[in-house]
Amino acid sequence: xxxxxxxxxxxxxxxxxxxxxxxxxxxxxxxxxxxxxxxxxxxxxxxxxxxxxxxxxxxxxxxxxxxxxxxxxxxxxxxxxxxxxxxxxxxxxxxxxxxxxxxxxxxxxxxxxxxxxxxxxxxxxxxxxxxxxxxxxxxxxxxxxxxxxxxxxxxxxxxxxxxxxxxxxxxxxxxxxxxxxxxxxxxxxxxxxxxxxxxxxxxxxxxxxxxxxxxxxxxxxxxxxxxxxxxxxxxx
Length: 236
Description:
Blueprint: E1 9-13, H1 18-27, E2 32-37, H2 40-51, E3 57-61, H3 67-74, E4 81-84, H4 99-127, E5 130-135, H5 148-168, E6 173-180, H6 200-211, E7 221-224
Parallel strand pairs: 1-2, 1-4, 2-3, 4-5, 5-6, 6-7
């Protein structure tokens, strides 16, 4: 994709549903988009919704756990804003967690972060501008029973983001990490009371705030929480 003179290009991973879809819809008003996920049908649906806002949209059906495929698909793309949103969570005690469940979380939440960022960051540094935004979690500084792997990956995100920020800020590239509390998404089991939780659109607003800040200003860490788990959103 060659971006238009007035529209920067934002690439969003995990863009087919949930928070990723909400971010795509929020950024579509001012950005052209590259949407990345594994589900072609859901990606096409999100793309159509984003095009209504005037965005030109490219979709890439891609498993970001695959380093070679990710490098092949993304290296050389002109991307001004990268939103590393793809993530998975398996909440269960360590002794009940399978190796497959452990490796899947590490591959998506940690290794894919390397694959995608490594493919796109050199272009930003070369151009002297760009923004990397990572969706973290309040689990990146808290812990809970059943979160041995998930919280570990989100702690990694916090350390990675701050180190990368220090490495590339003098090259004109900003690095942000958005750390939501509970968000009403498919990560929660069916039947969970989500009426009090944040909505995906709330996280999309936080991303937009971070990536559209003035060029001299960096929103590096932004924590967004539900106000109260005792009151549904509709009561405010």
